[in-house]
Amino acid sequence: MTAQSYLDVTEAAGRAFFMRGIAGPVTMLNLLRFREVADYSASPELDPGRPVSGREAFDAYVAHTLPFLRNSGGELLFLGDGGPWLIGPEGEGWDCAMLVRQASVESFIAWNSDAAYLAGIGHRTAALADARLLPLVERAK
Known about the structure:
Elements: H1 11-19, E1 26-34, H2 54-71, E2 75-84, E3 93-102, H3 105-111, H4 115-118, H5 122-127, E4 128-136
Antiparallel strand pairs: 1-3, 1-4, 2-3
């Protein structure tokens, strides 16, 4: 049995996210598992011309993305190394965790639709073997 990887938003998940009617800021929890060697076959124009690790390709994605994220009113709150769960399935872990905050669902969608941003998304695709993205909404205090 082969484990399924999740790398992109499905149409149904995108629709459900939008239909939640989130008002105000949304924080995205990203859990990321890197390829040992990045695979640039889907974006050869971004290939650095030498083998790089998935982590290195993801770093290139972050460097490309940050200006677009900031211009859209978003911010990178946290980017850090992961590892195995303390509470969770034994033998499972994530290489990296990231928290990205956007002012609104609309600004998140606009940022993710920007053609100049999308021109560098191939670094993310090359980097990742698997991912999870969980939209978080702060609870009223």
